[in-house]
Specification:
Elements lengths: L11 E7 L8 E7 L17 H14 L2 E7 L1 H7 L1 H14 L7 E5 L10 E4 L7 H24 L5 H4 L5 H10 L10 H6 L5
Parallel strand pairs: 1-4, 4-5
Antiparallel strand pairs: 1-2, 2-3
Helix pairs in contact: 1-4, 2-3
Length: 198
C-alpha cells in the first residue's frame, strides 16, 4: 500500500462506499477508525481481494478497530436524491454512527460530504489509506451479503452472482421479468424495463 500522508491526528476515520453502479439495492458506506496498537496486515482495496480474504479481514476489522460504523441510503432515497447525493448522505450517516468522534476524516474519491469535522477526499484512497481500505472491505462484504439474501427471494435475477451490477445477465433478466421493488427506478435500464424510456 502506498502510504498517504495526512495531517497528524490521532483519530482518523476512513470512509468508502460500495454500490453506486448497481441497478438494485442500497448504496452502503462504512467509516472506520483503526487502532494503531492493533495493526491489521493485508488491508487493500476490497475489489483487489478474494472473497475469502475479504471475509477474513472483515472479521479482523470488526474485532480490532477502535470504532466502525455502516451507513446506507435506500433505493427510494437514491431515486429521490440521485446516486451522488444519496452516497454523500450514506457517508454522513456512517461517520455519525461512529462511537468515537474522529478528528479528521478521509473519504475515498474526489469529493467530501458535509461533515462536522475536517475532511479530505483521496482519489484511489481505498488502495492508499489503510482506514479507507478497511471501510471498503466492511461496505463491500455487507452489501454483497445483502445481494446474496435478495437472491434467495428473487433467484431468477442472479443477484448473488452479479451483486446488482448491470451485467449482460442482469439486463437480460430485467428485460424478461421486469423490475422488483428493490430496483432503482431512476436508473436508465430499469426505466427502460418499466417502459418509462423510449
Amino acid at each position: 500500500m502506498i502510504e498517504f500522508v495526512y495531517p497528524h491526528t490521532h483519530l482518523v476515520a476512513g470512509v468508502d462506499e460500495v454500490g453506486r453502479g448497481p441497478l438494485v439495492g442500497a448504496v452502503v458506506t462504512a467509516a472506520v477508525i483503526l487502532d494503531p496498537a492493533r495493526p491489521i496486515v493485508g488491508l487493500a482495496d476490497s475489489k483487489q481481494l478474494s472473497e475469502k480474504r475479504r471475509l477474513a479481514l472483515f472479521d479482523e476489522i470488526v474485532e480490532k478497530a477502535l470504532s466502525f460504523s455502516l451507513g446506507r441510503a435506500e433505493v427510494e432515497e437514491i431515486d429521490q436524491l440521485n446516486i451522488l447525493h444519496a452516497t454523500m448522505l450514506a457517508m454522513q450517516r456512517a461517520v455519525a454512527g461512529l462511537s468515537v468522534t474522529p478528528e479528521f476524516v478521509l473519504i475515498d474519491g474526489n469529493r467530501c460530504p458535509v461533515l462536522p469535522m475536517p475532511s479530505q477526499a483521496v482519489v484511489k484512497g481505498d488502495s492508499r489509506v489503510a482506514e479507507i481500505s478497511a471501510a471498503s472491505i466492511l461496505a463491500k462484504v455487507t452489501r454483497d451479503r445483502e445481494m446474496t439474501e435478495l437472491d434467495t427471494c428473487f433467484p431468477q435475477y442472479g443477484f448473488a452472482q452479479h451483486k446488482g451490477y448491470p451485467t449482460a445477465l442482469h439486463l437480460e433478466r430485467l428485460a424478461e421479468y421486469g423490475a422488483t421493488e428493490h430496483h432503482r427506478r431512476s436508473f436508465a435500464p430499469v426505466k427502460r424495463s418499466l417502459g418509462l424510456l423510449s
